[in-house]
Amino acid sequence: MFEQFLGKLRKYEIRMRKAVTSERHGNFHSVFKGSGLEFDDLRLYQYGDDVRAIDWNTSAKGHGTFVKIFKEDKEQTAFFMLDVSASQQVGEVRKLKIDIAKEICGVLTLSAIQEATRVGLLCFSDKNERYIRPSDGMKHGYGVISELYKLVPESTRTNIADAILVTLNLLKRRTLVFLISDFIDENYYHNLKALCRKHDVIVIHLYDSRETDLPSLGIIPLYDAEKQATVWVNTSSKQYREDMASRFNKRSIDLKRLCHQNRADYLAINTQEDYVPALIHLFKVRHYTKSSVS
What we know:
Elements: H1 2-21, E1 37-44, H2 56-59, E2 66-72, E3 77-83, E4 91-92, E5 95-96, H3 97-114, E6 118-124, E7 128-135, H4 138-150, H5 160-170, E8 176-181, H6 189-198, E9 200-207, E10 219-224, E11 229-234, H7 238-261, E12 265-270, H8 276-293
Helix pairs in contact: 1-3, 1-8, 3-4, 5-6
C-alpha cells in the first residue's frame, strides 16, 4: 500500500513539475527560493518593488518607505506543519481531508528534496504527534513520506496556536513554512502573524464540500470527532444550512485577509476536487513574486 501511495505522489509531482517549467514560467527551483532568502539590509522603496517586501516598522518612523533586501542562503529549508486532528477525518473514503493533506505534504516534500531543499515536518493535534528534524537527501524525503503515511494521531483535538509556538521555537533561521489545516480552531491569529513576520509562510486551507453545501437529509446524527459526541441536527432547515455555510465563509475570508495583510500566501483546496492545478497556480504565482523581490 505504501508503494501505491508513493507512486501516486511521484505521478503528481511530475505533473506539477512539467506544468511549472512549461510556457516560460521559469525553473522549478524558484518555487522554493523563498525558503533560501535571509534578511540582509534595507533600502528605499523604488517603483516596481514588491509591496510585500516593505518593512512597515522602519517605514512608520517617517523617513521614507523602506524595503527589505534578502540574500540567498544556500541551506534552504521547507518545513511542513500538518494538522492531523479529528476534524480532518471528514470526507469520502480515501478522500478524507487528512488523506489529501498527507498527499499534498508528500508531493511538496518530493519537490523540495529534488531541489536540494532541506525538509522538516511537524504533525500536530493539540499535542505534537510527530516531529522530524529538517534534513536533505532522497532517503530523508522518503522517510518523511513514510512517517506521513503510517501516522495515527493520539489526540482528537486541535491547537494551532500551540503548534505555531513550537515551530517558532524550533526554526531559528528564515524558513519556508507550509501550514496545512482545515483551520477549525480559534485564538491562533496572533501566533500566525508572528510566524509570518519571521518566516515565509504558505497557508493551505483544506475543506470538504459538505462544509459549504450540506445536503438536505432531514434530521440526522452528526458526530463531532474532536469532542467525541453526537448531536442531532435538522439538515432540512434552511437556517441551519445557511448558518453552517456562513461560519465557513467567515472563517475563510478572515484567514485569507490575515494572510494578505501579513504577506503570506493563501490557498483554499476542496478535498473533493483535483488539487494539483491549485498547487501549480500557487507555484507559478510564487515564481513571479519571488523573482521581483530578489
